[in-house]
Amino acid sequence: MGFTSTSGKKKSQHAGTTIIASGTRIDGELKPAGELQLDGILVGGIETSNDVTIGDEGSFDGTLQARCLRISGHARGKIECERVEILANGCVTGEIFSNELVIASGGRFHGESHEKREAGSNSTSSSDEEAFMRSIAL
């Protein structure tokens, strides 16, 4: 059952931004339907198809999957996003899997960065070369 207006049309239902306030600590898995603003502490996992922002006072430790991650606080662990932005005061320690990594002046990154591959793509360049050679031989 959805919400309806007086004209009988359904109103759009979209998730808002989930805010974890400064002074709040969460241990566990979080799967927000909308965007996430983390100003507190989260230890565990975040999984969303939306954007995540870790504010100046925010801290994350665990596994994070999102569309885009902006960090001005601290993050540690495994991060998998299309785009990762480490802002001027941000610090990331761990592994980043992303197609786009931006580190602003003053931002810090300690760890490994890997290009995020699409599902089903080959992990070795020799396999990529073999597939290319087969395609042009046809």
Structure commentary:
The chain has one helix at 125-137; strands at 18-20, 25-30, 36-38, 41-47, 51-54, 59-71, 74-86, 91-103, 108-115. The chain has 138 residues and is mostly beta strands. The chain has one domain (18-137). It starts with 17 loop residues before the first strand and ends with a helix.
List keywords for this structure.
Cell shape determination protein CcmA; 9-stranded parallel sheet; 138 residues; single chain; 9 strands; BacA/B; mainly beta
Write a brief structural summary.
Residues 110-138 are annotated as: Disordered. The protein has 138 residues and is mainly beta.
Radius of gyration: 19 Å
Quote the beta fraction. Answer: over 45%
Unreliably modeled segments:
1-12
Average pLDDT taken over every residue: 85
Terminal Cα separation, in Å?
Answer: 54 Å
How would you describe the shape?
A: globular
Query: How would a crystallographer describe the biggest sheet?
Result: 9 strands, parallel
Structural class: mainly beta
